[in-house]
């Protein structure tokens, strides 16, 4: 990473609104939204569908700030290759709209604020986990792995799997086996999600020498890896049902339905590994998959869902007894 601004680039924020927009873009808000959904899912399960609204808001704000800090430092570190890639050239740092010094100050403020909010209004465990997420994303993924290993997104995916741990810890103050299963779900979901994107923008990564799997191993090998991870993801999601018994039949049905569609799309990519349209469809669905899976967790954990499923089970049991 260079320590000076890229040559030939000058700032061109037109007004204060554009300045705000530039800093907003540094945080990569679309990525943050997905991370917050997994955070909320962790909180919802931990609280058995009865989350304290104030704690939920504070934890989501703290999570957003910590993720924003990590993403900003990622943009700061990668501004050299972002300038080369067409897709990222207009980001705030390579375009010169934000200086490296200001970006670092901004990231520091976000991280300190996130830690303070979580430590004061939730607990130190959730605050510490949020900071570990920044460390994993910045040091382990961005600095150590991204430019040096085809397994960058596999190992680095641990950073994106930390938000549900933050949510769980904020509610309970500890980390149970269920919390670690939530971590494992996001960890296993990350390679299929990101490798589908990497297939779509393979040429960009090749241009800047980032050894993403499609660049080094090719689309065919990558598509098979995507399928393997997708197949492995389904039993991991069902661990919440058995043996942990923190989720019920509603979640199980949702997880199986969503997982089967995911596998179907992954299999289609195996058949057409160089078809960008198929990779794009898989990438978009992977986002929808995680959102709907977390929604399924929320629905299943509601007290009203417990009552309905218990009533249905009792009614079915009575009918079976009568039939016998």
UniProtKB/TrEMBL annotation:
<comment type="function">
    <text>Converts heme B (protoheme IX) to heme O by substitution of the vinyl group on carbon 2 of heme B porphyrin ring with a hydroxyethyl farnesyl side group.</text>
</comment>
<dbReference type="GO" id="GO:0008495">
    <property type="term" value="F:protoheme IX farnesyltransferase activity"/>
</dbReference>
<feature type="transmembrane region" description="Helical">
    <location>
        <begin position="282"/>
        <end position="299"/>
    </location>
</feature>
<keyword id="KW-0812">Transmembrane</keyword>
<keyword id="KW-1133">Transmembrane helix</keyword>
<keyword id="KW-0808">Transferase</keyword>
<comment type="similarity">
    <text>Belongs to the UbiA prenyltransferase family. Protoheme IX farnesyltransferase subfamily.</text>
</comment>
<keyword id="KW-0472">Membrane</keyword>
<feature type="transmembrane region" description="Helical">
    <location>
        <begin position="127"/>
        <end position="145"/>
    </location>
</feature>
<keyword id="KW-1003">Cell membrane</keyword>
<feature type="transmembrane region" description="Helical">
    <location>
        <begin position="53"/>
        <end position="77"/>
    </location>
</feature>
<feature type="transmembrane region" description="Helical">
    <location>
        <begin position="31"/>
        <end position="47"/>
    </location>
</feature>
<feature type="transmembrane region" description="Helical">
    <location>
        <begin position="152"/>
        <end position="171"/>
    </location>
</feature>
<dbReference type="InterPro" id="IPR044878">
    <property type="entry name" value="UbiA_sf"/>
</dbReference>
<comment type="pathway">
    <text>Porphyrin-containing compound metabolism; heme O biosynthesis; heme O from protoheme: step 1/1.</text>
</comment>
<dbReference type="GO" id="GO:0048034">
    <property type="term" value="P:heme O biosynthetic process"/>
</dbReference>
<keyword id="KW-0350">Heme biosynthesis</keyword>
<dbReference type="GO" id="GO:0005886">
    <property type="term" value="C:plasma membrane"/>
</dbReference>
<dbReference type="InterPro" id="IPR030470">
    <property type="entry name" value="UbiA_prenylTrfase_CS"/>
</dbReference>
<feature type="transmembrane region" description="Helical">
    <location>
        <begin position="250"/>
        <end position="270"/>
    </location>
</feature>
<feature type="transmembrane region" description="Helical">
    <location>
        <begin position="177"/>
        <end position="197"/>
    </location>
</feature>
<dbReference type="InterPro" id="IPR006369">
    <property type="entry name" value="Protohaem_IX_farnesylTrfase"/>
</dbReference>
<protein>
    <recommendedName>
        <fullName>Protoheme IX farnesyltransferase</fullName>
        <ecNumber>2.5.1.141</ecNumber>
    </recommendedName>
</protein>
<dbReference type="Pfam" id="PF01040">
    <property type="entry name" value="UbiA"/>
</dbReference>
<feature type="transmembrane region" description="Helical">
    <location>
        <begin position="226"/>
        <end position="244"/>
    </location>
</feature>
<dbReference type="InterPro" id="IPR000537">
    <property type="entry name" value="UbiA_prenyltransferase"/>
</dbReference>
<feature type="transmembrane region" description="Helical">
    <location>
        <begin position="98"/>
        <end position="121"/>
    </location>
</feature>
